[in-house]
Amino acid sequence: MSTVNPFLITRMQDHQFSIFAEMSTLALETKSINLGQGFPDSDGPTEVLDAAIQAIRDGHNQYPPDRGIEQLRRAVAEHQDRFYGQLVDPNDVVISTGAAESLAAATLALVTQGDEVILFEPYFDLYASCISLAGGIRKTVTLNAPDYSFNIDELNEQITSRTRFILLNTPHNPTGKVFSREEMEQIAEVAIKNDVLVVTDEVYEHMTYDGKQHIPIATLPGMAERTLTVSSSGKSFGLTGWKIGWCHGPTEMAKAVHTVKQNLTFASGAPFQPAIAEALALGDDYFEELARDLCAKRDLISAGLTDIGLQVFPASGTYYVTADVTPLGYEDGMSFCLDIPKRCGVVAVPTDVFYDHPTAGKSIVRFAYCKQPEVLNEAVERLSTLKA
Ligand code: PMP
Question: What does pTM read for this prediction?
Fold first, then answer.
């Protein structure tokens, strides 16, 4: 897919290809509706936008403190207490350039050459590149469609003396799975028994439906002392371009991540930090409406995809839904995704690129539904022309 770049270190050669860049280019070329990349097509709450503009006018334009401003670190801690009863010391919160920087800094801080990290596949592709950057080795446990359940024996089998951490992502991209309490208890038991750390990516924490609840794994018994929790404002407030994220964990672990962050970007987005502090304190109605709105969109796209004959897999979180494309006569997700922009003007992404064992996801495609209702309706109408 990509050629060898003589300037690029060997362990990054495999990470040149981005399915999102590829498919977004295709969307532009074919004037398609882009249900590939996961970003909303509307702005976040007006009061949060105004708070950032005010912060610029008030002179928050120079380097903020490297760990993040106290107001935001405090707001993150209050948010964890309010939604999950999780007690976090604001001094153990590190503000980062998106969740992405927390994930990169955590991997670079915790993983050395030859250490292993266990991922649940399909996985968000950034995890794999961060592990490669750190010189680590990726191990995977497969989430199996249709319900994306996993076999706990597989997780036990992947643990070795070199396992540094298990990377959990719930609600899960790309499947839309929300890990249940029972599943997380099983993962926690393995982590505790083998004395390994857990890094948990919870950027979709406010997007759960069907009565499913997001449970931070750090709140399970024995987990606070071994878990780094990562999240971000991008998804929760529809502000993916602001790139304000954070992480928190036990004091020394947070310090370790901070040491790397300090030597990467030092500090992040001055005027956006006070605005996100306000966003985190928005009323419950904001968060409830966010989930209600996305749930209706999930239903709309799922019904549309089912109607054309795809096998849609249940998704109770995030803003993604996955479906098997073989009922429409396609052999694999990639050929479907390369064909439908031309056939009906819609772009989606194949999920096989998010697996180390691509056969598991060969015929599965992900659709992002975080779009305006009229855009989604138009996409469903266009997709309906694929009906046999
Ligand atoms: N984790 C997951 C699972 C994601 O889907 C994304 C964004 N697509 C990120 C992390 C990155 O978040 P941010 O934009 O805050 O860096």
Answer: 0.97
